[in-house]
Amino acid sequence: MTKMTKFAVTGLAAGIALAALSTTAHAQEQWTMTTTWPDNLDLIKIDQHWVELVNKLAGEELQINFRAGGTLMPGSEVFDATQTGAIQASGDWPGYWAGLSPAFSPLATTTSLFNGVDYLNWIQQWGGFELYQEVYGNYNMVYLPYGITNNESGFMGNTPIESIADLEGKRLRLSGRDQGRVLEKLGGSQVTLAGGEVYQAIERGVIDAGEFSTPGVDYNAGFSEVADYWSTPGWHQSASVFGVMINKDAWDELPEETQETLKIAADATMAWSLAWSERQSTEATVKFQEDGVEITSLDEADLATIQDATNEVILRGACEDPMHAKVYHSMISYMEHYANWRDVTVPFNMSRSIDNLPSLEEIEACM
């Protein structure tokens, strides 16, 4: 072998070794991630599904060390920890941060507006994803929505709620700023409790009725053991979104290809979560009935009244905060635009058909 050939082979070997070392360096990068959910609440499975996908798909560049909610810090502290970079990421439900900005409320859920498919459409194709980035970006974070559940169970307790007239004077546990405002307009009062406290609150009569999540989550939380009545539908949260908050500095340090992998894992988890949650809800509804829980449903007149109250609350919030107005303006614009196709596909349409929406013109006046 000539000296020149030996030099070329040696240089090639050095290049391969350098590339291998570079790959190894990426493999050694690890993130710490926690969530708002303790491991005894089924919603943690959405976080776990995303983490498992990321660790499989991006294993050479990134590994995420996931810790259940409450094991590193209280769930109420994960926002600040992610914002400051104390941890790189955390799973959440955006509505928990509505005290910082009311725009977080519709990013988490809506009262009597979106269903699960609406959130999927809006996030993927109608500008929703960009609004999550704008709102969380104000707090030094990137946000990847990766979970959608359809409407909440409704209200469970030991007092029957068969109409909105039965809400008068009742104390109900529910989450969300806008949700509480609608309930107040209907005569009830909102009680704020952590998810793990709802069971005992129903059992001890601290609240007249309560909710936490979908039927699958609520059944596994033991609600059929303490509630005799279940009022449907879950109008207060017609669908919900969950996702991962990522510290912006940690995100920026990732190669572009790894960032794209995290987004792909989020999209896959979002589709999985909707189907998973609907299967869980179906099986749990059967179990609630087998356990003797009596299910009642509000009639169309009551639901129309709730929609009117919802529209008033949306307009009120829009005029209190421009970002809140911007998010709802995008959502309602989507509903009106999608109606051009949605409403000619009845009864096979995927989204909710609705002809009573808040006025875009009135929202625009507040932006």
Quick take:
With 367 residues, this protein is an alpha/beta fold. The protein is built from 14 helices and eleven strands. A six-stranded mixed beta sheet has the order 7-6-8-5-9-11.
Structure description:
β1, α2 and β2 form a beta-alpha-beta unit. It is globular and about 55 Å long. The strands form two sheets. A six-stranded mixed β-sheet has the order 7-6-8-5-9-11. The N terminus is likely disordered. It has two domains: 161 residues, D-Maltodextrin-Binding Protein, domain 2 (3-Layer(aba) Sandwich), CATH 3.40.190; 137 residues, Bacterial extracellular solute-binding protein, family 7 (D-Maltodextrin-Binding Protein, domain 2), CATH 3.40.190. The chain has 367 residues and is α/β, with parallel strands linked by helices. The relative contact order is 0.15.
List the helices and strands and how they pair.
Elements: H1 3-27, E1 30-35, H2 44-57, E2 63-66, H3 78-84, E3 89-92, H4 104-108, H5 116-125, H6 128-137, E4 141-152, E5 155-157, E6 171-173, H7 177-185, E7 189-191, H8 198-204, E8 209-210, H9 215-220, E9 229-232, E10 234-247, H10 248-252, H11 256-290, E11 294-297, H12 300-318, H13 322-342, H14 360-364
Parallel strand pairs: 1-2, 1-3, 6-7, 6-8, 9-11
Antiparallel strand pairs: 3-10, 4-10, 5-8, 5-9
Helix pairs in contact: 2-11, 7-12, 12-13
Pfam families: DctP
Binding site for Na(+): 212
Binding site for substrate: 152, 173, 211, 237
